[in-house]
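As the next step, I needed to go through one protein, both as residues and as discrete backbone shape codes, included below for the reader:
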Amino acid sequence: MSEKQGSRGASRDRHGRGIRRPLLSNLFRFGDSRVAGFEQIVKSSCEYLRDAWPDDLGQLNWRIVDAPALPEGADSVRRWSARPETMTIVIYRLPIERLGHHRRTDPLHERMHIEEYVFTAAASLIGKEPWQLIPGAEGN
């Protein structure tokens, strides 16, 4: 037997696989920095659009919602919605983070992935294509 018999707590190393992790791990952690990071990207993107297009998007409002309501029989999940009457875009966090994309390898790709939907939603408010919101793009 081992010299260390004590408790079966954190020092347990079964079959050389390392210390076990808690059962619930990070599933139920509050104050998740991933959510805060998502919110920061959306916020900075909207502020950029307000500054770049003050006449068209100066009154832009935004909200982040975990997921949209799904109508019965829906075969896809929306990533965003636009409400022109209040100049508000709604960005759906979970579909953007978890659906319809391959594994992103770094924070830059993650940011670009989120910004794509923010630009698409904002462009739909003012009847433009997302690429037209880039300063210097042809057709502005």
